[in-house]
Amino acid sequence: MSSSDNAICVENLSKRYIISHQRAAGDGLRHVLQDKALAPWRRLQAKLKGRKEKTSTSENPSTLDSSLSTSSAPTEEFWALKDVSFEVKRGEVLGIIGRNGAGKSTLLKILSRITEPTKGRITIEGRVASLLEVGTGFHPELTGRENIFLNGAILGMTRQEIKSKFDEIVAFAEVERFLDTPVKRYSSGMYVRLAFAVSAHLQTDILIVDEVLAVGDAQFQKKCMGKMESVSRQEGRTVLFVSHNMGAAQTLCQRGVLLRNGNVIADSTSEDAVRIYLHSLEVGSSRNLLDIEDRHGKGEVRLTRVDILSGRGEPVEALMTGEPARFVFHVTKIRPRMSINFLLHAPSGAPILFFDSKVASYKDVCNPNLGNSFVCEIAELPLLRGRYRMYANLYIAGEWQDGVDAAAMVEVEEGYFDRRPACSTPWGVFTTHHSWTLPYEAAGG
Amino acid sequence: MSRLVIEAGRAERHYWRDLWRYRELFYFLAWRDILVRYKQTVIGVTWSLLRPFLTMIVFTVIFGKLAKMPSSGVPYPILVFTALLPWQFFSNSFSESGNSLVANSNLISKIYFPRLIIPSGSVVVGFIDFLISAVFLMALMIWYHFMPDWRVLTLPFFTLVSLAAALGAGFLIAALTVKYRDFRFIVPFIAQFGLYVSPVGFSSTIVPDKWRLLYSLNPMVGVIDGFRWALLRGQAELYLPGFFLSLVIVTALLVFGIWYFRKTERTFADVI
Q1: Does B271 sit within 8 Å of A154, measured CB to CB?
Q2: Running DSSP on this structure, what letter comes out for residue B133?
Q3: Which domains does chain A have, with CATH numbers?
Q4: Contacts of B183 in chain A (CB under 8 A)
Q5: pLDDT tens for residues B53-105?
Q6: Which among B24, B36, B110 has the least Cβ separation from residue A133?
Q7: Which of A218, A319, B7, B187, by CA, is between 20 and 30 Å from A372?
Q8: A107: exposed, middle or buried (C-beta count within 10 Å: 0-12, 13-18, 19+)?
Q9: Which sign, positive or negative, has the C-alpha torsion A375, A381, A385, A386?
Q10: B109/A114 touch (CB, cutoff 8 Å), yes or no
């Protein structure tokens, strides 16, 4: 089990949260005082009730407990992680993937010691640092120079170490000219670059990277990726990469651990893990949506099916760029003031397009013969080739009723947009109406 | 290579060792708070002098000139300022620590370190202001040709007592504010109220003898009396039973503050 070339060893890790269903106002002082003040009265009430029950029906004592607990805040157990075990070899880049709520953040929190596990243990050989969310350790009023020292200290570096790495950090972040400007005046790009630079130049054996690469421009992302690769390849440091970005996870990581509902579903090569992850999302789109248990909202109404139709109303395997597209959302029932919205995620995982029936337009029509469904029509689909994941939500009078991730996978094929070929590029997922003014005759036109 | 084991209850056992280990971070956070304190203000650090200075003038006029309170031969501004020195330190540290954890919530929810560092850092900032004010007091004493005697050597002890009071109250209020934001509203009130309840604008000798012990339940009474005794050539005599009572209360406050902080600390990241 414990060999010396393991950097991280996670054994039977479990984390339990107690969720208390508090009253709306939450954790205010008033509630605590109220609770404390009313406690003797409730106890007395329960006792009287219990005695009455004992004399009349001699019921078992558990009813007494339940009557007590319903009068105060009821609680519920929730296992964010269940028996999670895996190992990370020294110098390995491991990706941890999974949906929201799969337990990724809890695992990270335990690894960075913000919360303690309920059961199990983690053994870490060497120093750990986490690449924090943008500017966590930054103070907006301080200058870039000051923030480098502060952030370094927060990440566990000594003054000496920071000094020796200072020039490298500044060069990497490309902020030489702004070193003595307060970071609140920085552009968000500069902010991210500086934050990444400090953490990436830390002399730690293990680096935890959490979703930070989603920000910053493409060029810088590339640079970060390069840095992360060199960190693991040349310097032999271990990297733990937690992400929604499947593309990045696949290119960066050798191994992938897939989490779902707090369990390890797959521990394999990163390609395998990503494939299993994507597959698990797609299964949802081919069957009745009511079978999906992983959903949100109050549940008074539910989404049952999403049909993807061409402009002529025929079911299609794939839509085409520039062509009409029609989405039909079937629901269990129709209620007044009900609305539907959906979000499309790009293949990289980034949310890109959002449609909401609540936001009205003169073009919207009402059709009483529609039955239990909503229809959204797009005259010219602006999406380029790729697979887009749909997240659909139902609302009644602004109250969230249903939320289904991967309610459908929208496949888009290459086509013509506004009579211009719409090719997919690695630099974007959209196209729109546009025209050029050229200084010469268009070739081949 | 260092080895780190994470399991239930482990951080608890190594707490005080960790506190020492993270001292560098403590310096840096305190340094940050000091740097940031007067950024983007026009008169900068002068603020830390101006506030007690103006309070001193107002109190001298109201209590000394209008109400004609006794000062046993000490120039009234000096009488007021010797009390303002520990009181400002206490109330600044107290107010700053109250908000400190919430203000640093992004750090708390992302990184591990013994949380005691954060309110302690706020107290350090208050202490810097205290030192600046102390220099001002020296200038004031030179101006009035009022020199302290050998008793001034006991001042470090009383400073320690006020430090203990500030830390104890700071820890307690910081931990409470994490869970109950109500304390955000209570803190300024206490700070304002305390200025009049404590013997800042007047000498505590005006309190009738039979009430003095009761009055000393306010820990700042002992601290302020101590400062006056040490700085004013014993002109304000030290009421010993009251002072010891204050000392006991300060100790209790510190112990209770640390205990409560430690007890709730584990859940900070979840409730903040």
Answers
A1: no
A2: H
A3: 22-73 (no CATH), 82-282 (3.40.50.300), 289-443 (2.70.50.60)
A4: 29
A5: 999 999 999 998 898 888 878 889 999 999 999 999 999 999 999 889 988 88
A6: B110
A7: A319
A8: buried
A9: negative
A10: yes
